[in-house]
DNA sequence: CATTTATTAGAACGATCGGTCAGTATAATT
DNA sequence: AATTATACTGACCGATCGTTCTAATAAATG
């Protein structure tokens, strides 16, 4: 078998991407081999390299998709929130359910890779911070509308980002989704209480 | 050259350990090769494997040293602190200066390693959480002494640990040590303000 | 001084890595 | 129908991985 229709080819590409994403999430970037991706996707080595010119590029492709999706979902949630406070809870909820997003871990690990193309590294580092501007916006809005006390918005944004990022990285081995959500909500509770006007 | 005195042999071991530690911190576990460690330490392959039976064991050795050192320094700082509040600032200060400690990142990455000995993985995962009990103690003390409001201490400890861990993982590319410290202090400010009795 | 033993060096190992390539089959185009 | 472009296969590549092994050297031991 060879030469599928354009549509089928796209399916192949997505099958590879899906398998790769799952493996990168489970094992990280370096621990995942192209051979594993081949096996898991059911496609051949050649097919993978036909659709993606390298492991790095495949990883970047996934990160970009992920980022777009994340931002879209987040802005969708924002439409339902009327106050900055509500928006922060929305972001936290988003992070808590972000078992689909932990590519962030893999991307942080990636930076250390030896032979990696510096250009790709830079892009990935930059990309890993994509939620920051969104958070900054909300905090600036909250301060402007007197929901939050006057303070350095950049610092607060970085802090909240670290909180949520940190929560996402913790090993929640024995915790249920409920408990995880609960801790994320608690994080926002404490954070809000700490910065309230 | 061969066969040094016991003292010199220990120096060799520590030179290897020091080189390995720096590389693990800079590049992560998997991205660091034994060949790099050999080159950086100036020792031979044989010497490395004479002192450490495997890469995994070398890594574990570093983690254990690191943990002991961390806990010692932290309890030393605690002696200077009279209130739970002060102790929290001490912990934050400790995390902020923990450019020597980010083995935590490497250990989190390690868990994903493929062929890794499950026993070693378990030990490492467990070890990566070592600051938690310390934090929990301080928070329980703070609640008991009415410094902090009544609340679930476990949840708060996990939250603070996530905050500090998250701050430690953020890419502070363009930030000075001053700014990093400042953000860590801010983290405690907000956290304390959020849980204050 | 002779022997043993601890410590180092470095060549070599099999396994696996990311990546390439010649070849094939079929859809699309002419 | 003939040709071209696309989608895919799987064997293969050199490099590098963690690890092992043999030999050499010198401290320790008697």
UniProtKB/TrEMBL annotation, chains A, B:
Record bears the keyword Transcription: yes
Residue span(s) of domain HTH tetR-type: 10-70
Listed Pfam families: TetR_C_5, TetR_N
Record key words, sorted: DNA-binding, Transcription, Transcription regulation
DNA-binding region: 33-52
GO MF annotation, one: DNA binding
Residue stretches in coiled coil: none
InterPro entries: Homeodomain-like_sf (IPR009057), HTH_TetR (IPR001647), Tet_transcr_reg_TetR-rel_C_sf (IPR036271), Tscrpt_reg_QacR_C (IPR013571)
One of the protein's GO biological processes: negative regulation of DNA-templated transcription
Descriptive protein name: TetR family transcriptional regulator
Organism encoding this protein: Paenibacillus agilis
Lineage: Bacteria, Bacillati, Bacillota, Bacilli, Bacillales
């Amino acid at each position: 078998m060879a030469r599928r229709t354009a549509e089928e080819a796209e399916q192949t590409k997505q099958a590879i991407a899906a398998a790769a994403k799952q493996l990168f999430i489970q094992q990280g970037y370096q621990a995942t081999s192209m051979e594993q991706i081949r096996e898991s996707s059911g496609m051949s080595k050649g097919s993978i390299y036909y659709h993606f010119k390298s492991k790095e590029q495949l990883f970047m492709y996934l990160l970009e998709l992920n980022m777009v999706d994340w931002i879209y979902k987040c802005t969708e949630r924002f439409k339902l929130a009327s106050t900055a406070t509500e928006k922060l809870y929305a972001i936290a909820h988003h992070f808590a359910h972000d078992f689909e997003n932990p590519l962030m871990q893999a991307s942080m690990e990636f930076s250390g890779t030896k032979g990696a193309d510096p250009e790709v590294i830079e892009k990935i580092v930059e990309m890993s911070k994509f939620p920051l501007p969104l958070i900054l916006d909300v905090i600036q809005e909250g301060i402007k509308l007197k929901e939050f006390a006057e303070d350095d918005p950049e610092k607060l944004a970085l802090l909240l980002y670290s909180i949520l990022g940190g929560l996402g990285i913790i090993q929640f081995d024995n915790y249920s989704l409920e408990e995880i959500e609960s801790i994320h909500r608690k994080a926002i509770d404490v954070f809000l209480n700490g910065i309230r006007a």
